[in-house]
Amino acid sequence: MSLIFDSLTVILVAFLLLLSHGRVDSEPVQDKQALLAFFNLVPHENRLQWNASASVCTWFGIECDANQSFVYSLRLPGVGLIGSIPPNTLGRLSQLRVLSLRSNRLSGEIPSDFSNFTLLRSLYLQNNVFTGDFPSSLTRLTRLSRLDLSSNNFTGSIPFSVNNLSHLTGLFLQNNRFAGSLPSLNPSNLTNFNVSNNNLNGSIPQVLAKFPASSFSGNLQLCGSPLPSCNPFFPSPAPSPSEITPGLPSSHKKSRKLSTIAIVLIAVGSALVALLLLFFLILCLRRKQRSRPAKTPKPTAAARAVAVEAGTSSSKDDITGGSAEAEKNKLVFFEGGIYSFDLEDLLRASAEVLGKGSVGTSYKAVLEEGTTVVVKRLKDVVVTKREFESQMEALGKIKHDNVVPLRAYYYSKDEKLLVSDFMPAGSLSALLHGSRGSGRTPLDWDNRMRIAMSTARGLAHLHVAGKVIHGNIKSSNILLRPDQDACVSDFGLNPLFGTSTPPSRVAGYRAPEVVETRKVTFKSDVYSFGVLLLELLTGKAPNQASLGEEGIDLPRWVQSVVREEWTAEVFDVELMRYHNIEEEMVQLLQIAMACVSTVPDQRPAMQEVVRMIEDMNRGETDDGLRQSSDDPSKGSDGHTPPPESRTPPSTVTP
Ligand SMILES: *[C@@H]1O[C@H](CO)[C@@H](O)[C@H](O)[C@H]1NC(C)=O
Ligand SMILES: *[C@@H]1O[C@H](CO)[C@@H](O)[C@H](O)[C@H]1NC(C)=O
Ligand SMILES: *[C@@H]1O[C@H](CO)[C@@H](O)[C@H](O)[C@H]1NC(C)=O
Ligand SMILES: *[C@@H]1O[C@H](CO)[C@@H](O)[C@H](O)[C@H]1NC(C)=O
Ligand SMILES: *[C@@H]1O[C@H](CO)[C@@H](O)[C@H](O)[C@H]1NC(C)=O
Ligand SMILES: *[C@@H]1O[C@H](CO)[C@@H](O)[C@H](O)[C@H]1NC(C)=O
Ligand SMILES: *[C@@H]1O[C@H](CO)[C@@H](O)[C@H](O)[C@H]1NC(C)=O
Ligand SMILES: *[C@@H]1O[C@H](CO)[C@@H](O)[C@H](O)[C@H]1NC(C)=O
To answer: Which residues belong to the signal peptide in this entry (predicted)?
Structure first.
């Protein structure tokens, strides 16, 4: 009996011993298998030998936790690993805190099971030849604090979801081929950041502006602080010190800088206090001599700036009181505007050249929050600031559906900018002359009529209500609204330039008298509008030498063709596919010819031109197939005049 018990005890003890022995030597078996799988699949240098019979925790490059229950860190820098990381190998090390595979020749994409590393704090994959997009598996590793993907061959954009990595303190993406724009990355403790030598473009988000320029250098088209401004219209960025992002955790360098500033401020402050005391002393002494009422303070530049910020149009009277500091950033918005950005936003916008004209260059500026505006950078402005402002004030008041509203302006010694709405549908010039031929949708007759009508209305409003001469009518200044109505842009700028620049700058639209007098008038606008009508009818650009003979302008060419009784030859071949429009085309041609009369006094006034176009007997010439009943180019009053009262344009003698 006892023998049995004894032997049982022995077995039990042995079993327990075995158990406990096994426990002491325990190793993370699953992690070991995962590592062996990796080791067997990925070629590496011979010196890296992992002994399968020894504990994984003793292997080169591996650390386990204190209880040896999981692999805690894996560091294999520069051990000649080659090829891609096979899935379902390393990805099984779910307890990993540190992973370094830097300076090998690993390639391919990062396996998606890297998202298993939910506890990972540091990931060093630099100096390999990994490819593919920014690994989306990594944006789930929310404990990550150091991420180094530098010097690989990654492509695609840097995703906004990097913000998922809220504990990130260092992000190193330099020397890859990342493209697109930089997302606004704002992990609160990010202190090291480098995206240099990629193919990034666009503006640097403000939250990243605290990093040095060398963090961003060597990219395709990255711009904005700390790199040069995005805006060709501001050659030198002039951010005021207050604009620098406040409240960011400061690195050592920054805090040192700040304390220097603080010292300076304290010094200046105490000097000011001393001066103030002296000033009061003198004041008191003077008061004793003669008492005098205190001067009411002038509205300060700051108060003005606030008014501008609030979007309320400001009184311009106090401008002269502005200091040089205020001089720098005054983006003056007109009343009733829809925008709420400031000069700083405009500075950070990415800009693209829309067109270069003789008065300046226009840019399409996309602000960070998505607003798109057109910024025109004027050159050779000769008028004084006051004259400039009063002209802007006049232009800013003009509100009409067929006039592109001017939203804001900026005047400084070096820069004069105009901000207006961006019209994505483009210009009449592009519609008429862009990519003729192959696969192009021609501008149909109804739309041409509609453009003629709405342009005329816009110009008449400028002349009558605004008392403003357009001065630069041409098809590239006629912009299309989404509803296909046209609106006129770039108006009323001639008074800003001296007579040294030709008033109407585009040959072909210029009235004959303007060439001599260099002075634009309401009647010279009518002439240019007449040329525009001819352009709509003939499909020929007046400023291009496509009229056969050299040096012959569009009105003279039309006149010569019409005189030879070849009227039909005048019209755009693209219009030939539409039926029953000949009469209207001839009527519009007659209006155009009246406008381009060489004698200014023989040209109709703009409001008469509007009436003439409105009075064309549209839609009554045919079976109604072409005309729709809601034809917008009819008179705004909606009634069609009876046939008897229709005035044939040729008989209207202005
Ligand atoms: C592998 O480890 C076992 C046990 O620790 C040891 O006996 C053996 O010598 C090792 N082999 C090599 C090649 O180091
Ligand atoms: C190690 O194991 C002991 C008991 O098994 C446990 O109390 C301790 O928390 C473990 N330590 C770690 C670091 O996991
Ligand atoms: C890790 O990823 C693998 C796929 O490679 C998956 O089979 C496994 O379940 C994951 N493990 C954990 C702990 O999430
Ligand atoms: C961000 O992290 C959460 C978990 O915290 C995850 O569910 C989500 O998918 C992550 N987003 C991306 C884009 O990876
Ligand atoms: C990166 O990828 C491109 C094409 O995908 C290839 O031409 C280039 O050699 C790669 N660079 C390296 C260092 O492998
Ligand atoms: C940022 O750092 C501070 C101090 O080290 C720490 O208390 C805080 O939790 C960190 N925040 C995040 C989101 O990691
Ligand atoms: C940036 O580059 C991408 C293509 O990589 C392009 O689609 C985008 O328009 C560019 N953006 C700017 C602002 O140039
Ligand atoms: C960023 O990386 C580039 C290229 O490796 C280097 O020249 C530059 O000094 C780095 N900048 C910072 C701020 O680390």
So the answer is: 1-26
| Cβ 53 under 6 angstroms from ligand 1 | yes
Query: Residue 283 in 3-state DSSP?
Result: helix
Whole-angstrom Cα distance, residue 526 to residue 400? 19
Give the integer Cα–Cα distance in Å for 379 and 466.
Answer: 24
Hey, what are 315's tokens? Answer: 């009184």
pTM here?
A: 0.53
Which residues line the pocket of ligand 3, CB cutoff 6 A?
Answer: 87-88, 91-92, 94, 113, 116
Task: Report the residue count for the chain.
Answer: 654
User: What letter does residue 497 receive in the DSSP assignment?
Assistant: B
Q: Contact 193/226 with Cβ under 8 angstroms?
A: no
Closest ligand relative to 176 C-alpha:
5
CA angle 258, 260, 266 (to 5 degrees): 100
Q: Which one, of 315, 373, 321, lies nearest residue 343 by Cα?
A: 373
Domains of the chain: 29-223 (3.80.10.10), 340-617 (1.10.510.10)
Cβ-contact 188, 210 below 8 angstroms: no
pLDDT, tens digit (0-9, with 9 covering 90-100), for 542-569 = 876 555 555 678 888 888 887 777 777 7
52-108, pLDDT tens digit by residue? Answer: 898 999 898 999 998 889 999 999 998 999 999 999 999 999 999 999 999 999 999
Ligand 7 midpoint to CA 179 (Å): 8
